[in-house]
Amino acid sequence: MRIDILTLFPQMFQSPLSSGIFKRASDRKLVEITVRNIRDYTHDKHRTVDDYPYGGGAGMILKPEPIFEAVEAIKSDIRPEEEIGALQVVLLTPQGRLFSQQIALELSRYSRLILICGHYEGIDERVREHLVTDEISIGDYVLSGGELAAMVVVDAVIRLVPGVLGSAASPIDDSHTTGLLEYPQYTRPSVYRGWAVPEVLLSGNHAQIAKWHREQAVIRTAERRPELLDKTNLTSSERQLVEQLQKH
Ligand code: ADE
Question: How large is the angle between the packed helices 20-27 and 147-158, nearest 10 degrees?
Answer without folding.
Answer: 60
